[in-house]
Amino acid sequence: MQLLFRDDAYARSCAAKVTAVDERGIRLDATVFYPMGGGQPGDIGVLRLADGRSVPVIDTVKGIAPEEVIHVVAPGTPLPEVGTEVTAEIDWQRRRRLMRMHSCLHLLCAVVPGEVTGGQVGDGKGRLDFNLPEAKLDKDHIEKELNRLISENHSVRPRWISDAELEARPELVRTMSVKPPVGQGQVRLLEIEGIDLQPCGGTHVAHTREIGPVEVVKIESKGRQNRRVNLALREP
Ligand SMILES: [Zn+2]
Asked: Are 33 and 101 in contact, with CB atoms under 8 Å apart?
């Protein structure tokens, strides 16, 4: 299966062929649909058939095999047969909001010190938890720094390194709760030039200005160690 979102997060649709269908959903030979993982929700969208029918995709998840992507459909939906040619098309407006927030969470990693213990990208909002026992986080300062980095328009791009290189640079791993997927020889890093570099398989904007203005909604204490920083996009 060709995972087109990896190299081109801006790809909204692609031609594909149905390779398998079962109770979990539909597999294709190529897809632009991102499967839930790394704190980013799976894409929703539609598979368009040549005869005019369309199959709504209500979620996208990973299969058991590496690189297996399952397009989940609502129960009762008539399913296409194996071999059917489709056009796979994501809900781009939603995905773009997810890309903007996901990219912003990388900036948050650069602004707030401490290990990341969890996080979630949502539609128009997002959060990260930091392991910061003593720190008092300044909401206004964080918001100002984020918006400064956004307006500086840093470029954002994926980069691949070998498992061995990653092992030699453990400081690259900021997130304790999500271990990078080693064992396939190569690990995908996400680099925001001069700001942040860490393993990430998600989808991101190409330049930070595309994130648009953001706000720090609130900072919560989650237990003795954890500080949760909640963000929202200011523009829909
Ligand atoms: Zn990322």
From this structure: no
Task: Output helix, strand, coil percentages for the chain, rounded to the nearest 5.
Answer: 20, 40, 40
pTM as predicted: 0.93
Q: Across the chain, which distance is largest between two alpha carbons, in Å?
A: 61
From the CA of 38, how far away is ligand 1's center (Å)?
8
Q: Are 220 and 231 in contact (CB under 8 A)?
A: no
Residue 225 has pLDDT above 80, yes or no: yes
Phi, psi of 118 (to 5 degrees): 180, 170
Q: In the sheet where 69-72 sits, what is the strand order?
A: 54-57, 45-49, 85-90, 13-22, 25-28, 69-72, 59-62
Instruction: Give 65 Cα–ligand 1 centroid separation in angstroms.
Output: 22
Q: How far is ligand 1, taken at its centre, from the CA of residue 5, in Å?
A: 13
